[in-house]
């Protein structure tokens, strides 16, 4: 990757680098030619799902597989590399693997892992994750409106979820609901076509348009006890999944910055004004170097975070700082890139506009900058500013 100025990719093992090369080839040849058209139409390119499966990135999640669990650095660079080609496809993969499969891996029984993970690791079944609600985003932990009521060997779910990626076509959705008897937050795997479960696509988005976000309605939706995640007993279990995936969003922000820089660099070499490539102008070079500096600094932060994760000593506030900082720098970087393009920057044909728009969604989702700031602020001061 030309933007990898400090050769962070070289920190991977050779087998991991080979997987990155295969992934890069797939996205360059199969995905890149499709994304602008599908982004413009706000549709998902389902024909790419088989290609995701063929990459073998999730083979390790099958309980019967001998494939080693990827390193934290490899997991992060996977998110970064996908976002480098298209943030929406990276989100699709992250929701399926990190949130849906992650919920089953973290909170499921051994029987549940064997029931769902093999097919999910091969993308034969696609997952989604239903936490956010129409009236609850950052405060959903304390005000979850979706309820679960035990009725014999079944649970009856009622409520609504919003902004649920993959949900319009997912085969199963992990739904988080409040037990009306104990007030605890429980997790349930709701399979497609379950009576009382319905989805509707959220229209008119101007960011992550390929991601099929949905509203979910649960109306007397009956789920068997066998589909309740057996080791999910409080919101702390939900938060543990989010803690693990939050850093993935920061890695996506790095990938978007690398993409914006590379697209702008290529344009600067090819676009001529006043009889010379615009890359020869000092102000254009200044923009390019600022973009590269932002992306490289964020990548360095994420590499160190991956090391802390590997050592088992990283903390919530470290993931929060990474998400807040990398996404803030991403906003700067993509807008500097758009500035370099002038008027051409607002036309999809030049590719950069898609990253400018998509960055706005990454900036907000999985915890806004303000919420991450409060997490870090509490850590450094010892004082809580949460209301």
TrEMBL record:
InterPro entries documented for this protein: ACX4-like (IPR045008), Acyl-CoA_DH_CS (IPR006089), Acyl-CoA_Oxase/DH_mid-dom (IPR006091), Acyl-CoA_Oxase/DH_mid-dom_sf (IPR046373), AcylCo_DH-like_C (IPR036250), AcylCo_DH/oxidase_C (IPR009075), AcylCoA_DH/ox_N (IPR013786), AcylCoA_DH/ox_N_sf (IPR037069)
UniProt cofactor(s): FAD
Organism of origin: Mycobacterium aquaticum
Residues in Acyl-CoA oxidase/dehydrogenase middle domain copies: 128-220
Gene Ontology biological process terms in this record: fatty acid beta-oxidation
GO MF, one annotated term: acyl-CoA dehydrogenase activity
Protein's recorded name: Acyl-CoA dehydrogenase
Acyl-CoA dehydrogenase/oxidase N-terminal domain sequence ranges: 16-122
Family, similarity comment: Belongs to the acyl-CoA dehydrogenase family.
